[in-house]
Amino acid sequence: MATVQSVRGPIDSSELGRTLVHEHVFVLGEEYRLNYDTDWDEDQKVADAVRDLNDLKAAGIDTIFDPTVLGLGRYIPRIQKVAAQTDLNIIVATGLYTYNDIPHQFEHRGPGQLFDMPEPLVEMFVKDLTDGIADTGVRAAFLKCAIEAPGLTPGVERVMRAVGQSSAQTGAPITVHTNPHTRSGLVAQQVLKEEGADLTKVVLGHSGDSDDIDYLVEVADNGSLLGMDRFGLDVYLSTEKRVDTIVELVRRGYVEQITLAHDASCYIDYFDPAAKAEMQPNWNFRHIPDDVLPMLLEKGVSEDDIDTMLVKNPRRYFE
């Protein structure tokens, strides 16, 4: 067992229960919101999030990991308001989300930069993990970085190495946004390993966007967990193909390296809500408990396998 930091405070890893490893409460540009979103209603947005998460709890899910970090609009006081009104555990992250460049706040500060100094990203991430985020009293429980189609750009590499170093220092696990079609999970594994991170404590997010079994087996054989975590985003891969891929991985003996989620959110400012619901009607928190789990069972995945994917694997991520 291990202690896991949640928004409401530390819990034992045995209390995580059924866990979706990659969901968001809010994804938004705070700077944009403050300057241009004249329709924003803070109380209503919080109430909507509470409703959605309580509904998810009623569907049998006990915990979500929320990898909303710098670059995605992380604002912990708002998450605290939501967490205070739901029994569902919310586990938050530290890190930085970019596909290309490092934010301007860091481009001139750091090893070998204009202002040569120890990596400020590592100092930030470790502080969030050990002391808490800002003055909220909430500690991050895991780390997040990304590598997309542009590949290992200088900015992406710098963030990823800082995440790897922070994990090596603290033991905190990592989630990486990857693009499996470019096989970027292999790149992430190499860089994180070079920085001392334990690959068995890494979720390669969005692995479920691909049904390339050979690639998925290769990264799983390196020790990492597979994030089959975009159920409902049929624009990337249909639910049926996502389910069939998991069935095949389970058949091959990889059930202990599979995690599940939707990468959904209570609110995201990337899309008009009505248009999003029309284009991707299954992209919501209920899709896995209502649709995906019955499909897996129908195709021969056992209840024990589902328990491994939803309970045992997320718990082992911290233990």
Describe the structure.
This protein has about 325 residues and is an alpha/beta fold. The chain has a single domain (about 5-319), classed as Metal-dependent hydrolases (TIM Barrel). About 40% of the residues lie in helices and about 15% in strands. The protein is built from twelve helices and 14 strands. It has an eight-stranded parallel β-sheet. It has a two-stranded antiparallel sheet with strand order 1-2. Helix 7 (about 185-195) links the parallel strand 10 (about 175) and strand 11. The longest helix is centred in the N-terminal third of the chain and has 17 residues, at about 40-60. It is globular. The termini are close together. The mean pLDDT is about 95. InterPro entries: AryldialkylPase_Zn-BS, Metal_Hydrolase, Phosphotriesterase. Its cofactor is a divalent metal cation. It comes from Aeromicrobium flavum.
Relevant terms:
319 residues; alpha/beta; TIM Barrel; 8-stranded parallel beta sheet; two-stranded antiparallel ribbon; globular; hydrolase activity, acting on ester bonds
